[in-house]
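Appendix B. Worked example

We walk through a single record from start to finish. Start with the input: the chain for Aminotransferase class I/II-fold pyridoxal phosphate-dependent enzyme, Pedobacter segetis, length 413.
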Amino acid sequence: MDIFEKIAKNMGPLGQHQKWSHGYFSFPKLEGEIAPHMNFRGKEHLVWSLNNYLGLANHPEVREADAQAAKDYGMAYPMGARMMSGNSNHHEALEKSLAEFTGYEDAFLLNYGYQGILSAIDALVDRNDVIVYDAESHACIIDGVRLHMGKRFVYLHNDMDSLKKQLERATKLTQENGGGILVITEGVFGMSGAQGKLKEIIDFKKDFSFRLLIDDAHGFGTMGKTGAGTHEAQDCLAGVDVYFGTFAKSMAGIGAFIASTEEITNYLRYNMRSQTFAKSLPMPMVLGLKKRLELLRSKPELKDKLWEIATALQTGLRNKGFNIGTTNSVVTPVFLKGELSEATAITMDLRENFGIFCSIVIYPVIPKGLIMLRLIPTAMHTLKDVERTVSAFSQVREKLEKGYYKDKKPEMA
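Next comes the structure step. The output line below is what the pipeline stores for this chain.
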């Protein structure tokens, strides 16, 4: 069969809906300044879908730093991969600051988050090693695990009994082939908002030999006394062997970093294929990130405001009887009982009649029969935004329970 003919018959689980969903449910265009209120299809909406946790995207000092760096360096400098010709004092200074902030000996700056952790996993293990990972790990971790040429075992999400069983399997195997074990989890799971059980995982080191890598994309900047991450919040820095953080969330930028001991970080510098064979971060982004990190560290009131909004949102939803799952972070999921057709109708009702834009999650990401509306609070939201949202959700739930959304077909202009 011709490859293109095969593709035409199977556009994929998401692509199969593209003819009617594109531009509305998928690939929507939010316009205007990055803020809690933006324009969607010509109308102002209250937006809960942007990971601009600390509101740094349009902070005046950040905008000034970005603009000045672009003026001074352009977007091309430095040219080439870091190892060959793309290094600079500014890249190294940012790495030093990130290591210091997160509590590690060294850090390595990455051009992209998704490719970064995927490549780090590939570099850390060989065919004799075993990976043990949480079932709800982000797609970037899953893809990194798929690259692994050795064995991999998955444990039930945040289930320590399941983890123990997989560690027992992995230990038996590595005792036979001389390999090691890498456990991977997330600091904060981006869908459920639940923190990974880092301290409980680390406790297993008393009985098993393994190293722990955490993806703290949603924890960096939001968790812990200083915002250093979930390992700080759970007071278990010593047990997290490799720490990964991204700039696409709290730092409102692009790129990522990975931190560990000086030896392991240097090993990653020279063995991560996604960095060895790809261009380094442009100077405007590096200098802009330095300013973002400076503000993250010097203005704790930004994180405090974020948590004020998140706490008010989650408390308001719980008080109204909503199921927000197991979240113990600022990520706020709202679970409703319903089918795909009802999910699309609810989304449209929220956008068209309530002016609220939030992400919707359905099967297979969550079990059949459930709809998840995912809210991302930021330091820029207000308590008035929270009240408006809780009220709208209450009205939507009432309509859902009365069958209002049954068999409604999406009709986008």
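Two observations about the output. Residues 3-57+300-401 form a domain with the Aspartate Aminotransferase, domain 1 fold (CATH 3.90.1150.10). The chain has a mean pLDDT of 94.
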